[in-house]
Amino acid sequence: MPRLKICGLTRREDLLCAVDAGADALGLVFYPPSPRFVDLPTAAALAGAVPPFISIVGLFVNAEPLQVRATLAALPIHLLQFHGDEDEAYCRQFERPYIKAARVRPGMDLIQYAAGFPSAQAILLDAFVDGYGGGGKVFDWALVPDSLGKPLILSGGLDADNVAAAVRRLRPAAVDVSSGVEASKGIKDGAKIRAFAAALRATGRAV
Ligand SMILES: O=C(O)c1ccccc1N[C@@H]1O[C@H](COP(=O)(O)O)[C@@H](O)[C@H]1O
């Protein structure tokens, strides 16, 4: 079964619900224009509620390196997620494991894109949307090659109704969901989180 990341958490109760549902990784958004943005005090309170052996992922979009460094100094971030136009030299300067998002559009060479990030732990595929991400939009899965030469994290408009089909088709190492488990932007829905996790678990038996 693919691992599960739930992103865009802004409230302690949502974070605990995600943990309870079996999330392996929890995403905090440090991109100020996002409705899911968390400031450092909020992020610190959320991080303090995360049990051992669950990863905290810090998501950035074209951030000033100083902002990333200040966040790393203040919080127990296990993994960085770069979701903007960052190049490999930018991503690796922090000397932390990171995942690099590709915003998928028709005609894009995803193998070449992934080859541009040899230091990345994984490549995350998301739909191309205005605002960089968290748009709840599914991209055309036919654009995904058999192998990227790196673990694949699938995101982009996933929800309890489509995640099993996505996993059967693309066999990602992990899936990442935000909008598909929300009641409104930045506010998660416990029932949707549980339904998503159950649909994902079912693929472990039925792929
Ligand atoms: O969540 C956000 O607000 C966000 C903002 C800027 C870049 C990425 C963002 N989230 C990531 O977007 C994808 C897809 O999310 P969705 O499930 O389609 O809403 C996911 O990887 C989030 O981590």
Account of the protein in words:
By secondary structure, the protein is an alpha/beta fold. It has a single domain, classed as TIM Barrel. The chain contains seven helices and ten strands. The strands form two sheets. An eight-stranded parallel beta barrel has the order 1-2-3-4-5-6-7-8. It is globular, with a radius of gyration of 16 Å. The N and C termini lie close together (9 Å). GO terms for molecular function: phosphoribosylanthranilate isomerase activity.
Q: What's the CATH architecture?
A: Alpha-Beta Barrel
Widest beta sheet: strand line-up: 1-2-3-4-5-6-7-8
Oligomer: single chain
Low-confidence stretches: none
Strand content: 15-25%
Q: Rough shape?
A: globular
CATH class: Alpha Beta
CATH topology: TIM Barrel
Rg of Cα set: 16 Å
Brief descriptors of the model:
two-stranded antiparallel ribbon, binds the ligand O=C(O)c1ccccc1N[C@@H]1O[C@H](COP(=O)(O)O)[C@@H](O)[C@H]1O, single chain, 207 residues, 7 helices, eight-stranded parallel barrel, TIM Barrel, 10 strands, alpha/beta
In summary, what is this structure?
The chain has helices at 12-21, 40-47, 65-74, 88-92, 110-115, 163-170, 190-206; strands at residues 3-6, 25-29, 55-60, 79-82, 98-104, 122-127, 152-154, 174-177, 182-184, 187-188.
